[in-house]
Design brief:
- This protein has a domain of 184 residues: Rossmann fold (3-Layer(aba) Sandwich), CATH 3.40.50.150.
- The protein is α/β, with parallel strands linked by helices and 267 residues long.
- The two termini are 33 Å apart.
- The chain contains ten helices and ten strands.
- The protein is globular.
- A seven-stranded mixed beta sheet has the order 3-2-1-4-5-10-6, with helices on both faces. Strands 7-9-8 form a three-stranded antiparallel beta sheet, sandwiched between helices.
- The protein binds S-adenosylmethionine.
- Keywords: Methyltransferase, Transferase.
- One of its GO terms (biological process) is methylation.
- InterPro entries: Erg6_SMT_methyltransf, Methyltransf_25, SAM-dependent_MTases_sf.
- This is Class I SAM-dependent methyltransferase.
- It comes from Actinoallomurus liliacearum.
Amino acid sequence: MRHPAGEHPLDPSGYDAELQRHDRLLRRACGVRPHDHVLDIGCGIGQTTRAAARTARAGGALGIDISASAVARAREIARTEGLGNVTFENADAQVHRFPQERFDLAISRFGTMFFDDPVAAFANIGRTLRPAGRLVMMVWQPRERNEWNVAIRRSLAGPDGPAAAASAGPDPFSLADPPAVKEILGAAGFADIAFTDVHEPVYYGPDVAAALDWVHGFTCTGEALKRLDPAAAARVVGRLREMLSAHLSDDGVWFDSRAWLITARRP
Ligand SMILES: C[S@@+](CC[C@H](N)C(=O)[O-])C[C@H]1O[C@@H](n2cnc3c(N)ncnc32)[C@H](O)[C@@H]1O
């Protein structure tokens, strides 16, 4: 339900702001070194790619994303910031022909949950890692443990029931189950697979209007509103506004969230 496949409007502060509390933990786990070559999977507009490139001064970072508009924006920001060791590729990480054994580290901030065939995708990523290369990624824990998703779905569904909020799109919770992920990564050739519980809130904006704007960009919101007549759509927006108001505190709109920080290694 989270803006998969780059369908979210490219507000440069949006996703970076939402995940500000997660980003710190991801960076620490990545432990990028000055000579590293880093691959950022599903990089979006590239905040994590640029951060990796800044640390990998003698190496570099490649961000890959299936969304052409996200990659165009990522390139633009990197150019504006004058970063010379970061590049971006508009491609599907599941099938892209990466150079073999090129990268020391593959990272991802919520960009690996949308593969059609996760074993094939992670095997493809594994082939571009050097022996002993690491994979460090953040993914959502199950839907029920993510207050933001439960609250939004409830608002979208309202008295019309959950069908109104059903989304046929890619599943952001597809890597939520550790045993299943262990099986996927193991089948893809990874070892030393470990999970760390990340319990940090997500930020939706400084006020209700900004948060509503952000939620409007979610695939599930767009799909639900598209199916409704104008009066019913207005009721949904009213419920969303009320729900977001209930989550407004002095420093903006926040929701509880649970993620896994997953680490693994190519043998
Ligand atoms: C939730 S967003 C996260 C973006 C970015 N990592 C960040 O933290 O700002 C997921 C991203 O994964 C990308 N994505 C989805 N499927 C992909 C695939 N098969 N290959 C590459 N990127 C993909 C989407 O286009 C989207 O930009």
